[in-house]
Amino acid sequence: MGNFQVIDHPLIQHKLTILRDKNTGTKYFREVVNEIARLLAYEVSREMPLRDVEVETPIVKTVQKQLAGKKVVIVPILRAGLGMVDGMLDLIPAAKVGHVGMYRDHDTMEPVEYFIKMPSDLSERELLVVDPMLATGGSAVAAIDALKKRGATNIKFVCLVAAPEGVKVLQDAHPDVNIYTASLDEKLNEKGYIIPGLGDAGDRLFGTM
Ligand SMILES: O=P(O)(O)OC[C@H]1O[C@H](OP(=O)(O)OP(=O)(O)O)[C@H](O)[C@@H]1O
Ligand SMILES: O=c1cc[nH]c(=O)[nH]1
Ligand SMILES: [Mg+2]
């Protein structure tokens, strides 16, 4: 079973409360989503492998560390995942960005894929799939299905708010995928929204309420 980790650093908890507040407007919401994404990127990259390299300081030659892992691809699930990309790129600037367009049908709650564009050689890359919300888990599972079909084998899923129902669905479907979230909330309501949650992340990011 993949690892499930709640990254509840005090700065992250503080910022998440700002996002939950219904009075937080679009501009500030967008900024804070990116700030949290940056903090999550720091934690998610903690296990990245290193290799020894020789470097010459102004004083001596020395052997020090350099990142050695697979090339990273940040994969936002559109639309809301886009809100996390810049924050992630702040810490992993050499990452490529692939896009998966997916919306949840309002009546059935089933995910509908409408766009996919990924860099080549997915089998040789580490993918960080990002989406602020893991609710029923349908969108995350469908996105990861699509990525595995294209050869991806090394995938982490990073979100801001997860419902227990979605965590279970994602773990059952993709036990090899590590899941990182800033918060594990209580449950879903009858419309599939996370309680307490922060509402519709895409609408709040892009002002489409
Ligand atoms: O776990 P699930 O039940 O599938 O729900 C989560 C999905 O719902 C939201 O996207 P939405 O469908 O609202 O699309 P949007 O990002 O374009 O607003 C969210 O950003 C996730 O992708
Ligand atoms: O609470 C939720 C559930 C799904 N998608 C969202 O944006 N918010
Ligand atoms: Mg939405």
Task: Show the helix and strand layout.
Blueprint: E1 4-6, H1 10-20, H2 26-44, E2 50-56, E3 61-67, E4 71-78, H3 85-91, E5 96-97, E6 99-104, E7 111-117, E8 125-130, E9 133-134, H4 138-149, E10 154-162, H5 164-173, E11 178-184, E12 187-188, E13 194-195, H6 201-206
Helix pairs in contact: 1-2, 2-3
Q: What is the SS-derived class?
A: alpha/beta
Please summarize the sheet with the most strands.
9 strands, mixed
CATH topology: Rossmann fold
Low-pLDDT parts are: none
- Shape annotation: globular
Mean pLDDT: 96
- The CATH class label is Alpha Beta
Tell me the domain tally: 1
**Proportion of residues in extended strands:** 25-35%
Write down how many β-strands occur, each being a DSSP E stretch of 2 or more residues: 13
- The level of helicity is 25-40%
Care to give the gist of this entry?
This protein has 209 residues and is an alpha/beta fold. It has 6 helices and 13 strands. It has one domain: Rossmann fold (3-Layer(aba) Sandwich).
